Amino acid sequence: MANKTQRDVFFDRVYELARVDRDVIIVSADMSAPALDKFRRDLPMQFVNVGIAEQNAILIASGLAKEGKKVFCYAIAPFITLRCLEQIRVNSCINEIPITIVGMGVGLGYHSDGPTHHLIEDVAIMRSFPGINILNTTDNIMAASLVSIAANSSVTNYIRLDKDFHDDVYSAGADFSSGLNKIKEGRKMIVATGAMVHSACEIAASDYGVIDLFQIPINREAFIEAINGVEKIITLEEHFLAGGMGSAVCELFNDCDIKISVKRLGLNARAGYESCYKYGGREIIRDNFGLGFESIKEEANNFFK
Amino acid sequence: MKINLKGLFNRKEKKNSRLYAKSFEIRKAMLEMCINAGKGHVTSCLSCVDILVALYYADLMRFDAKCPDSFNRDRLVLSKGQASPALYTILADLGFFDKADLKGFTKLDGKLAVHLQKSVPGVELTVGSLGQGYGVAAGMALSAKMNRELHNVFAILGDGECYEGSIWETAMFASHNNLNNLITIVDRNFLCVTDFTEDLVALEPMEDKWKSFGFGVIRINGHCFEEILAAIEPLRSHSSAKPTVIIADTVKGKGVKSLCYDPLWHGCAPGNKVATQCIADLKRRYEDGQ
User: Fold this and answer.
1) Which of A25, A45, A86 has its CB closest to that of B129?
2) Domain A6-161 belongs to what topology?
3) Are B127 and B116 contacting, i.e. CB atoms less than 8 angstroms apart?
4) Among the four A175, A250, B35, B252, which has the fewest Cβ within 10 Å?
C-alpha cells in the first residue's frame, strides 16, 4: 500500500513546479495537507487562503489566471464543484480563463462523513460544460503526472483526487497524454475510472481486460483504438449512473455507430442518498448502493459468460 | 418604508463643463442606441454614466484605445454587466471600435449584446451573472500586487448586486489582503428589478456594512463630477493601505425625467412616443442645466 495519498504526491509536484515558477499559485478554501505545509512555509506569496468560501476561491483564482497565473484551486471536492457551478461556468467556460480545480475526496472517499461530503454526481454535471477537462486520478503516479499537464493547459482542468491510499497501477514514467490507458488486454473489457480501476484489476484477474478511462471528454480516437476487437464492455464507476462515465461511453458508441454490448455499473440511485448513511467503511456504502466488490464480480461473470 | 429619494440629491451639483457636455453626448448616444434596438437596461446605464465618463475622460484611468490589452492599462470590471450600453458608447467614442458597431446592438450580425462581453475591445470580462465580476477583479488586483505592478483595478457594482453573498466574500478577502489597488464603486441608485431596495430588503446602512468589512468608505453624489474626481483621484496612487469603496448615490434614469423613480423601467428601452419624450427630457435637462 502506498504511504502517501494522491493529494500529497500531487501537491509535492506542485511545490516543485512553484519553486521554479513564481506564477504557480495555490488558492485554497482553507484546506490543508501535509504536503502543503512546506508550500505555505517556503512560498507564502504563492499560497492564497480565501477561507471557507469556495465560490470566492473560483473567482479569485480566475482573476489571477486572467492575469497569467497558473492557479491550482483546491478544496473538498463537492464544495469546489457543485457549490461553485455558476462561477465555473461563467469564468472557466464562458470567459475561457483556464484554472486547475483540485477536488479532494471524490466518490465515497469521505465515507465516515455522510452524504454532504460524498461526490457522486459531479462527472455528469461538469461534463455538460464545454471547456472543462475532467481528470479522474487512479494512483499516485498519475496524480503527480497530472500537475504539469494541468499547469500547461489552455483549458480548465478538474482533477478528482481520491482520498484513500492505493497501490500504484502505473509505473514511473507512464504516459497519460491520451486520456486513457489499457492496463490489461482482453476481449471482455472492464472500462473503469478512478478508485474503481483497482477493483476492476482485481476482478479482471486473468479473465478480462481493463481500460482506465481517466479523462472526460473521452479521447474518441484513442478509445476506439483501445476497444478494437473487444466483444463486451462493462463500465465501472463510483458515481450515480445517470450521466457518468458509462453514459459518456454509451453516447460515444451511439454517435459512432459502434455495436458493442455495454453494461453500466455504478451507484444505484433508486434509494436516493439513503446508502450514504451507512458507516463502517467505503466498501459498506458501495455494497448498499449495489456496487460492492462481490456484486460487481458476480455481475461481470454473468455478463461476460 | 418610504424614503425621500429626491432629498438625497439636495447637495448642489457643480458643473464641470467638459465632462458635463460629454455626459450629455454619451447619454444621448446610449439612449438612441437602445431605442433603435428596442433593448437595453437604459435606466441602469443612466445611473452610472457619470461615473464612467469621469473614469474615461478625466484621466482617472490609464488606457490605450489603439492597444486595449496594453499591459500597464488600468482594468475596469463593470460587474453590473447590464450597464453595457453605457460602456459600449464610451468605448466607441474613444475609438476602441467603430461607432457604426453601436447600430448593431443586439441585432443580427451585431457584435454587442445586452450584457457585457469580453470580445468587445476594451472590455475585460464577460459578465451578466451578478456578484461574479467583483471576485475576478479582486483576483486581478491580487495578481498586480504579487507582481508589484502599479496599475489599478476598478470595479463598478450595482447596489442590487450587493444582495449576492459572493460580493461580501470578496469584500472580506480584499480588505484582509490590503488590495488598495482595487477601487470599488457602488452605483447606489436605490432601485432593484421590481422595487426600491429599502422596501425590498434594506441595504442600508451601506457605509457601516463596508466599514465593518475593513474598507475605507467615501459616500458621494454619483452625478457630481467634482465629488467623483475628488474621491477617486487620491486612490489612484494608493493613498490608503486599505481598499476603499465609493458609494455613489445615483438616480436610476438620471437625466431622463420620465424614466426616474419608477421600478418598472428596469431592463427596458423606451419605445415609440415615450422614446421621443425621453430624448426631449434629456435635452431639456441639459439645456436647463438642472
Assistant:
1) A86
2) Rossmann fold (3.40.50)
3) yes
4) A175
